[in-house]
């Protein structure tokens, strides 16, 4: 029996070693393709598109290329890559898009290399924005988070679905802290009746915090709400909805009250000296996104979660809507509501 086992094991090892190099990577059979990536805000006058080549291990750099943008069949823009000075000398090929888009527009973007070897294109329909956020109720609460009690602000956000359509959304809670302070400019002197004086300069610093707690919300957790204890248990690793995406399957053609929490305190990095004023706003943004972006961000949720292991799990297939190449180009519309959380003057 020992001899038979040894023979079988030896044959198994021979088979494995003989299969190691059966499918070599051949660059001739896998030529580089254009990679187009852009997340476009339909209401913004400035958006950016990134163009690269696929590569073995890392993306390849595109040197000379052009971009054509058509809206409902009519040519709107012909673009060349941005100057290195504008992109802070990033190695990526970047294009600056100008002009807004309207819900229902069909946008086509064509990318071509100057040597005529590569052509990739994409068509994206601009989604309708969600109707105006009806109401946002806030309340200060004590919430157990990561095993300790924290003072949080609870948001009850009343949303209205776009009727008679399948819709995909993304929630962004942008806590904006604005500090106004002053400093003495030692290199700039003013002369007056009392002799020399240092000139004061005013600085406005804005900080953004996009984190929020959503574990109790049935829509954002995809039907799996959790308590703090369940979240910290670790027995069952759940994919965290880092990017806040959801569809309307649980509130189709109706309204829904979404519940999230965050820290309402002003945010500052490295301290703020000589304070003049501070104000904190919460901007509740609900983006209407394309189906491709929805599934793309869900895939990123998996990759960015503790439940994903590159060794144990299969490779993630990212959705792509680019023809003749790969990547994702998406256009979103949004509705938002701003709430003042804090304001104080220090004069």
Notes on the structure:
This protein is mainly beta. 11% of the residues lie in helices and 47% in strands. The strands form 3 sheets. Strands 1, 2, 3, 6, 11, 12, 13, 15 and 16 form a 9-stranded mixed beta sheet that branches. The protein starts with a helix and ends with a strand. This is DUF4249 domain-containing protein.
Beta strands, count: 16
How many structurally independent domains? 2
Tell me, rounded to a whole number, the average pLDDT: 85
Main β-sheet: number of strands, strand sense, barrel status?
9 strands, mixed
Uncertain parts: 1-27
- The portion of residues assigned to helices is 10-25%
Q: What does the overall shape look like?
A: globular
The number of helical runs is: 3
Structural class: mainly beta
Calculate Rg over CA atoms. Answer: 26 Å
Strand fraction: over 45%
Question: What is the straight-line distance between the termini?
Answer: 90 Å
Element pattern in H and E: HEEEEEEEEEEEEHEEEHE
Protein name: DUF4249 domain-containing protein
Pfam family, one: DUF4249
